[in-house]
Every structure is written in structure tokens, then in C-alpha cells.
Records
---
Amino acid sequence: MATAEPDINSNPPQPSEDGPEETGQEVVSPESYIKHPLQNRWSLWFFKNDKSKTWQANLRLISKFDTVEDFWALYNHIQLSSNLLSGCDYSLFKDGIEPMWEDERNKRGGRWLITLNKQQRRQELDRFWLETLLCLVGEAFDDYSDEVCGAVVNIRTKGDKLAIWTADYENRDAITHIGYVYHTYRESV
């Protein structure tokens, strides 16, 4: 079997003045494939009220994410909250915190609650829920973001509810700041 030896006398191709040699491959900058990390890892939960099961059996972990890109990938592939059946919930909590008051991180906590009437579901629910999610993953609560455990949207026949859950009801400065930012952010968008 004959092998070809490299021709050491030939000159390698030189790049043109227009840029790198045409190889049929696109040059990709690192910024296009490096994901943007979030400050926390988050877990999305789904609750579907099936009366034949226990409350905990109705609660399912959907996915976890810790980058901006993974948040949007998940958000764009789940059902909008306004399309969920009555009795269903979405919950977004920091990883390691379950969306129930019995969880150790929620026991001493409280919540900021927004109630919507039935007519607001089609016009405002999805926007309010997305704004709530962006407040959480974007750490919009400044120095008090650590005091936020998560958020829940409840779809109910009489009207829907959105809530941000906080860690410690006795931390008045944090609770007040979180409520102020959440209300202000919602109003400004």
C-alpha cells in the first residue's frame, strides 16, 4: 500500500484580505454558545388537582434550570398559565425548596398576593405571571432577593391568584422591599 508524503515544498494556502480562508465552516464567536448563568438554580413545579390522589402526589417537578437560555427554552415550551385547567398551579421555587408551606424554608414565611377576577385571565394573567418569573430569576429584589423562596400561580374558577413567597415574616425590611418592588415592577411594565 503506497502512502503519500506531504509536499514540503508547497506553500500552504494564505488567508485572503477579506478574512479567513473559505472552508465551508462558519466561525462562531464564544458569546454565541456560552450560556448566561442565573444567580440561583430554579425548579418549575406543576400541580393538577386530581381528587383521587393525595396533594403531594398531584405535585410534579417539571424541570430545573440555572441559565437565562434554559429559562426561556422552558418557558417557551410549556402551556401558558391562562390555558391551564381550573385547579392547576405552576410554581417556580429556588432549587431545594418545595412549593408547600411545610418546607423548612417556607415555614416562617409569607406571601405577596395578587388576585385576578375571571375576566382578567385572558388579558392579564400571562403577562403578570411572566413578570413575576422575571422578577424571580432576575433577582429584582436587590439585597433582599435571598428572602424570596418562589412564586405560585393558581388557576381557579372564581378567579386566579399569583403570589411571591418569602422566607421570614419577621424580616419587615425585606418583606416591605419585596412587596414594593413587585408592585412597582408590575405597574411599570
---
Amino acid sequence: MMNGYWMSKPNKDQWENIAERYKSLWNLPNCIGSIDGKHIRIEKLPNTGSSNFNYKVYNSIVLLGCCDADGLFTMVETGYAGRNSEGGIFRASAMKYHITHSQLDIPLPSKLPHDTNNCNFPYYFVADEAFPLSKYLMRPYPRRTLNNIRRVFNYRLSRGRKTIECTFGMMTEKFQVLSTAIRCRDVNKINDIVKACCILHNFTRKREGTRYAKRNFEESVDIRNTTNFTTDYSTSNERTVNYQSSCYDLRDYLSQYSTTPQASLPWQWNNCI
């Protein structure tokens, strides 16, 4: 019962509320979650060889997590061997299966705020470079292909993506069992411990935590110093997208949208260029 209440599968209205919070807090419209993996340190399990030995040079299992804009887990999976890559784990995960088979009640594509093209853009998750780009998962542009517009997009994406890193960090600080190697030789019990920590993180954050508040950019940014950047670099979005658009077209559209006058942030050029 606690699992179902404190980490229940969001419905359509809840996904839309999450998207509204991402737009309000992190200026990332239509985003419904941030996905990443975390290595949970464990003592070497019997008869596992090097399967749990990761690139960080210790034994681990991987927790694949998805959170909302306020640092609450919405989906978690754990138990993957530490030597596997996060992108490979996601491809094999039930999380990806549920997303691609329309089992999460994700809302239909909708118009981005103040988008003059009136194109419907799909709701999406965000992740880092380790994850595969897709229509439902936005990742940053590779560094070798960056231009000014793409740098701004990567910056805007990172504002939303960091929520999962903060969520992992808050959970680890709460539960010290995650700060050292878990001393258990039963992988099923280890998985139960990790899942319990995720649920208890949601419990304590909802009951005792402080909800993120939107900061006014005037508190930390001098508008006079950003006006010229916004005027000089902002562009019009001449692209269009539809249900047949590829994931690359969708990312290009979103990156171009991020630099239009109606969607540009006053400080983004100073932070990226």
C-alpha cells in the first residue's frame, strides 16, 4: 500500500501537472521526467565473477530512476549488473517497454507555449548522453557538433535533467546505507533495500521536504546586460514538426524554439556563449 501511494504510476492529469512544473521551474516545456542511472555500491556477490564490477572500479548494481520536477521518483528499476551501460540498461528496461507501448497514459502531443507555428510537440523525458535519442527521450547534442543554438539547447536541457541527479543525491544523504557498500549477499534483498529507500525518499520529501520555488531571474541576472544578447541571437523558428517527424527533427525543432524571442531566457546567451 505504501508503494502504491507514495510512488504510484502517474495518470494523464498528473503527467500534465509534472510538465507544468518543469516549464515553471526549469523553463522546459512538455517535459514529464528526468531519467538516469545510479550505481549502488555492494559487496561482491557469490558466483558473479566480474559482472557487477563497474567502470568506477567497485562492485555495484544499477538503479534506473525517473523523477519529476520537484525531485520525487515516479518510476524506478533496480538489480541490473554494474558493468552494463546506462543506455543498454534503459533499452532492456520495463520502463522503456511501458513508454513505447503506451502503457503510461502519457498525454497526446500539444503546442509549446507561445509557439507561433502551432505545431503539436510530444511530451518527452530528458536524459544525458549515455541514453539513446528518441521521440520520447531528449538528450544533449554531441560536443563535436555544437553551435550557439545547440549550446543553448544543451543548457536548457541540463536545467531539467539535473533534477534526477539532485534526487539521487538527496536520497543518498538521507539513507547512509547507500553511501557505503551494502553488506548483503542476496541480490533480491539488496533490490528491496534500494526500492524501500526510493519510496521512503518520496515519503519524507512529501511529508517534510520543501517544494522547489521558482526564482525570479531579476534576483541574480542584470536584465540590462542580457537584452542585447537576446535581441542579437534570438531567431524565428522556421521548422515544423508532425507525428511523422524523426527524433532528430524534434530535437532540432525544440532547440530552435528555445532561441525564439517568445521562448528565449534573458540570461541563456550569457551562460552559454
---
Amino acid sequence: GVRGIRLNLSLGVTSTIDHVLPLAARVAPLGWHVQLLMPPERLAQLEGLLSALPAPIVFDHMARISPAQAGTHPAHALVLRLLGQGRAWLKLSGGYLVSPRHSVEDPALDALARGYLDANPERIVWGSDWPHASASAGMQPMPDDARQLDRLADWAGSARLRQVLVHNPATLYGFAA
């Protein structure tokens, strides 16, 4: 049932970045994707590499881009471009991680989330981020998963909600909707 690999490049380990392309080349023939978690600064530096990956990319946690960076940071433009080209997916997960208020209730998340949905609604999936490792470690308040779903419904609207929760994951993960 494996469908992809996840690489956490948040720690800035250079050798890990050197492994992205070889790992993507190994998983591409299997139909797997490469899920990435990294700061926006690192993401912007890897534009050439990410544009050339042979496997689909999934950006975790709203690509770690804060609402203040939307529309201004090169990483945001890259993610929107890759989404629009159908080369990438994005998880609308962990909004509380990118919010300056550390809350999914932050109204600043609205434009960011809707911008991703508008870029390519067929390439957006949702995740709860359970078990909320950083919140469990006391780095921010524990999010309410039910409220996170409510916020997704606010962002997606009724027309896109089923697509994000059912059809898109079925396509990405290869199961029947």
C-alpha cells in the first residue's frame, strides 16, 4: 500500500537534498510520489531540481508558506506554478503551523488556502496532521481536528469539498473513489 516517500528537509541537511533526485528516480517507476516538507527559503532554492523531478511532488503543510509570504515569496510562485502545471500536489494541512497566530482560525489563512485551490483544485488534498507532533511537544496549542475540517469546508466551499476529500486522494493514492 505504499504510495510515496516523505522527505523532511526542514533541518537543512545538505546531503539530504543531494538524495532527492536519486530517490525520486527510484520511486517514479513504482508510481510513487515524493512528499516534501521544507522551509520556503529552501524550496525556492530548489526550483530547478523540483521542476525536473521524475516523480510527482506533494508539498506538505501548505508548503510551509505563511500567509504573509503568499504572493511575495518566490517559493509561493513556484508552488502555484507546479500546481498549475499538474506537476505537484499540495496538502491543505497544518494551517496552524504556518499561521502567525498558530491557529487554523486565523483569517489570514483564507486567501492562502483559496489561492492554492484556485491554482489547481484537482491537485489539492487535505490532512489533519494528526498526531500533531509539534503541538504534542508543546510548541503551539493542540489544534481541534473537527475545526480544521470546518475550515477546509470554508476554503473549498461545497463544490470543491468532495473533490479535495474524496476524488483527489483517490487519484493521488490510487484507490477507487
---
Amino acid sequence: MTTTPDDRTLLLRAVALAAEARAAGDPPFGSLLAAPDGTVLAEERNTTLTGRDITAHPELKLARWAARELDPAAAARTTMYTSCEPCTMCGAVIRQAGLRRVVFALSGAQLLDIRPAGGRPPVPQDGPALFDEVRAVVEGYYR
């Protein structure tokens, strides 16, 4: 799907929110949620540092807001505009909230190109284990 001039306007607002987050001492990420007519329903900034919450990404906060405040049909008509492509955590929550579309200004790959090297190493994971035991708990729930 191609972006429109209206998408560009809303993306620029997301970038401005990212600048506000950076000025406040947080990572430079901002997002907003818009109705089909372009009306901004809610907007958020990253507050992972100032809020001391590693999950306080603006995309996650908006998806949670949408799931709580909008009925599923209304959520399915919204578009999220965000300064950077949502991370895996945020993407999962956006899907659960049932949002229609996400438009981002900077891809995750582009972010890695302009961000200094480093970060945290991957956390080793072991599994699956105890399939039969957990299957008995989960099976039938998603009908």
C-alpha cells in the first residue's frame, strides 16, 4: 500500500512526538492513532526511561488504549502512524488490538544502520518442554 499526502502529515506528527520524547530524555519514538477521516484519536511518546518501564513504547501504549477504549469494529478502522517500525513486542500487541494498518517513517533495518552498535545479547531459550502437560491446560480454550 502506498502512502498518501495525509499519511505524510500524520507521520510528521509522529516524528514530532519522537522529538518530544528525546527532549524529555527518552528514546526518540512517537506514535499516534487516527480514525479513517484522519482525526487523531490518541498519541503517545516513548517513556521507557522517564517512566522506568521497559515496555513503555508508544505503539504498545496506543494498542492497549485501542483495545480498552474502542470497540473491535472501531479499532479495525484505525491506522497507527509511528516514527519507527514497531518492534516484535509492539507488533504482537497491535495484532491483538485488531488495528487496521500501521504506517511508519523509519524501518527497523534503517534504525539499526543509524544506531550505534551494542545492545543486549540474545537471551538463551530452551523448549518446548512438557508438551502433554501444558496441552491439557490450553487445548479447547481457543474455540
